């Protein structure tokens, strides 16, 4: 059971929202995924640069933490 929480956290780190979806929090998962896609596009094409990258890393860490704790 503990390994499932770890796997969900790892999945959610690489693709934010996936771990939440697996845990049954589908709406939260969709919201995190949409935010991730929007920030990725803005970072890549709108030139957010290092600030956008830091925000993306923080989002990934939050998604992993949340997926682990909501298991």
UniProtKB/TrEMBL annotation:
Keywords from UniProt, A to Z, are: Membrane, Transmembrane, Transmembrane helix
Please indicate which superkingdom the organism of origin belongs to: Archaea
User: Which residue ranges does UniProt annotate as crossing the membrane?
Assistant: 6-23, 30-63
Give the protein name, as stated in the record: TM2 domain-containing protein
Species of the source: Methanobrevibacter millerae
């Amino acid at each position: 059971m503990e390994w499932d929480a770890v796997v969900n956290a790892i999945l959610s780190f690489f693709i934010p929202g996936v771990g939440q979806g697996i845990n049954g929090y589908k709406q939260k998962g969709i919201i995190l995924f949409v935010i991730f896609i929007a920030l990725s596009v803005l970072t890549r094409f709108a030139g957010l640069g290092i600030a956008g990258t830091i925000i993306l890393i923080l989002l990934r860490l939050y998604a992993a933490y949340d997926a682990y704790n909501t298991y």
